[in-house]
């Protein structure tokens, strides 16, 4: 049996961090703290590797493909292959995220043939010689989306790459572990990518199962206790909630990352994280922690009141789909794409894709992921009130007096 991680508010560091806040603010602080996702290094590596291999081998991209870890260059505005801007990642000029992703890319190179991925394609001559048809950029997350976009534009500022793309000789793709709601929207609206894939969608303020009143309180808390004005909701206000073992992203609210602030503690602000890293003792306690998903609350927010009431009484399971009624309810509400469904029912995007395939095989949704007649019938059955069948006759203590007697049949 696996140990269930405690809630972050129950850890020693969490308890000390909550003491920063005045009475009346601690409830919102606890809600924010317990809404964090703690992604272990093992989970990150395994799930991002699996997603990357699926993308490369299922015909999603043209091959051979060259893989590159997204990294930031400063000052902005650089051009790829113009010194010192290169796609090489080294320990001397890179953050931990880029190194971990580069390690995953290296393992992918070893596991796939050269006809699928091209190793060491780090200059224009090698890209041309090996007839690379896809540039696949890989990152741990897209919080605001800015870093991924700037990295891609660094490639497109190179006139040769720009020409190859214009002639449709190469395509650009992005694979990330996590993409926030606003980050994914920004990436898609940019028009820079021919395809975007992720493991997790959400893990941010927009996808948290909070009421509007709770959301306002948490936002107010972050802004009132922020150390620097404008940083309360994280980088560009993206309001992230994901914590990785290898890094603490800067799109988390600043009150989770700052080392100083307006604390009510006599000894000053007690930080939760510091120096963009999660303390090892905290990760040991919370590795794998995720906020509990409430399907009833999600259905009520969607306006599916009857289905929510029925779901409270009896969750409906079917062949590996955790809650078929919940899935169909969200599909009926317009959440037909894997990313939308994953965010709504709190599963990974690959799992949501498998659910869609399975439900389609049952004939409950069509090729456009709309409910079929059978799907609507299943949804109506889920909303119906359960029949209460008496298991035995109900007795009575009152005396029984017959109202008539049958005649004897004997002559």
Explained architecture:
This protein has 411 residues and is of the alpha/beta class. 40% of the residues lie in helices and 9% in strands. It is built from 17 helices and six strands. Helix 8 links the parallel strand 4 and strand 5 (195-201). Helix 2 packs across helix 9 and helix 15 (338-345) crosses helix 16. The chain is globular.
> What would you call the structural class?
alpha/beta
Order of helices and strands: HHEHEHHEHHEHEHEHHHHHHHH
Instruction: Write down the oligomeric state.
Output: single chain
Which percent range describes the beta-strand content?
Answer: 5-15%
The profile of the biggest β sheet is:
4 strands, parallel
- The counted number of beta strands is 6
How are the strands ordered across the major sheet? 2-3-4-5
Shape: globular
The number of helical segments is 17
Distance between the termini: 76 Å
Q: Give the low-pLDDT segments.
A: none
Helix content percent band: 25-40%
Q: Which value, in Å, is the CA radius of gyration?
A: 27 Å
Name the average pLDDT: 87
Short description:
With 411 residues, the protein is of the alpha/beta class. 40% of the residues lie in helices and 9% in strands.
Q: Which descriptors apply to this entry?
A:
6 strands, 40% helix, two-stranded parallel sheet, alpha/beta, 411 residues, single chain
């Amino acid at each position: 049996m696996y140990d269930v991680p405690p809630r972050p508010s129950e850890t020693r560091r969490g308890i000390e961090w909550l003491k920063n806040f005045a009475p009346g603010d601690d409830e919102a602080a606890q809600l924010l703290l317990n809404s964090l996702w703690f992604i272990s290094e093992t989970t990150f590596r395994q799930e991002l590797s699996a997603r990357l291999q699926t993308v490369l081998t299922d015909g999603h991209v043209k091959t051979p493909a060259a893989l590159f870890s997204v990294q930031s260059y400063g000052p902005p505005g650089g051009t790829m292959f113009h010194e010192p801007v290169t796609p090489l990642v080294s320990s001397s000029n890179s953050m931990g995220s880029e190194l971990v992703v580069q390690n995953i890319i290296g393992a992918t190179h070893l596991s796939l043939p050269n006809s699928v991925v091209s190793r060491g394609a780090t200059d224009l001559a090698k890209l041309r010689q090996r007839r690379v048809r896809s540039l696949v950029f890989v990152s741990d997350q897209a919080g605001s989306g800015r870093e991924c976009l700037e990295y891609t534009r660094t490639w497109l500022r190179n006139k040769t790459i720009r020409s190859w793309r214009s002639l449709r000789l190469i395509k650009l793709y992005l694979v990330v572990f996590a993409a926030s709601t606003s980050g994914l929207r920004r990436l898609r609206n940019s028009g820079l990518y021919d395809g975007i894939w992720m493991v997790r969608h959400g893990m941010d303020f927009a996808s948290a199962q909070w009421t509007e009143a709770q959301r306002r309180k948490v936002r107010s808390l972050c802004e009132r206790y922020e150390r620097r004005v404008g940083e309360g909701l994280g980088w560009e206000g993206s309001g992230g909630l994901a914590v990785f073992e290898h890094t603490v992203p800067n799109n988390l609210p600043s009150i989770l990352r700052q080392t100083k602030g307006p604390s009510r503690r006599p000894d000053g602000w007690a930080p939760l994280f510091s120096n963009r890293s999660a303390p090892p003792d905290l990760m040991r306690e919370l590795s794998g922690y995720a906020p509990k998903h409430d399907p009833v609350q999600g259905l009520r927010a969607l306006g599916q009141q009857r289905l929510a009431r029925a779901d409270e009484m009896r969750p409906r399971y079917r062949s590996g789909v955790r809650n078929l009624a919940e899935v169909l309810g969200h599909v009926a509400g317009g959440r037909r794409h894997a990313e939308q469904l994953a965010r709504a029912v709190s599963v990974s995007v690959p799992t949501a894709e498998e659910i869609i395939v399975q439900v389609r095989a049952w004939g409950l949704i069509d090729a456009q992921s709309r409910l079929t007649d059978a799907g609507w019938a299943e949804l109506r059955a889920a909303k119906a009130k359960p029949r209460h069948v008496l298991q035995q006759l109900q007795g009575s203590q009152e005396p029984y007096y017959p109202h008539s007697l049958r005649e004897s049949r004997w002559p």
